[in-house]
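A quick aside before the break. I want you to see a complete sequence-to-structure record at least once, exactly as it would be stored in a machine-readable document. Don't worry about memorizing anything.
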Amino acid sequence: MQDISFIDKTFEITKTNLYHLSIQISLNGLCYTVLDIPKGKYVLLKVHHFFLKRPRLLFKHVNEAMELDDIFNHEFKSTEILYATRKFTLVPQSFYSKVSAEKYIWFNNSEERGYVIGKNLFPKAGCWCIFDIPQNLSDFLSSKFPKVTLKHNFFPLVEGTLKRNRAYAGQCQVHLNFFRDHFEMIVILGSSLVFCNMFSYITDRDILYHVLLVFEQLKLSSETTELIVHGHLPQVSPVFHLFKKYVKQTSFARLDTTFQYSYTFAQLPEHYYSSILSAYKCE
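That is the input. The structure line, written in tokens, reads:
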């Protein structure tokens, strides 16, 4: 799979002090976008693909990608970093204790050496997300971006959806965000987060099983619940047509109309990077 580089003709490397930089790090790769804040327009999208199976390998690849890309040598008006890891847990804000953060995550995840704990608040969801990250990667990001708070990749999906849905008290939505071999899943009822988890898959049947099981367990209506797909699921994917067979209101995610997007982005389906392109001020 080739790396992606879409750059608008209005992008100027000398004006990064007017831009916002969003970075997403996962086993699939390093993805980043640039928002021209005064214009309210996304002017750059780049992806350096990785094909990794272990988070311990991320530091080497992220470091190399950032060393080769001059944009990371410039100062931006604001920056945020999203990190996708399967080891995470959500703790209601009323129960959260800073000193107990490690106990929360290791209660239902296996602990490994060489990892540290990251955490960030999901204010609209009313919970803290606690996750692990390789120590060397955490140290590198803290050194390169000392003023930036690392956030779990669920942040824009959860907080952005809650922000957009606050006027729809009774509406139920299921959002799926696809990576190469796993997908994130959240269930939103009006202004409340009622489900948040991540599932691995090998076949289309695996995906359908996990999704329909959540529908069954939460007693979600297949007629009125909206199923919205983000991430790397092709428009011709058989699993998307299976979704439409079982869930009447199935669709691909659309980009936030609050912003403009470079004409160069039109080469990709809107839903491929809808999550990171909604990260700016989604809280």
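Two observations worth writing down. DSSP finds six helices and 15 strands in the chain. The chain has a mean pLDDT of 93. We'll return to this after the break.
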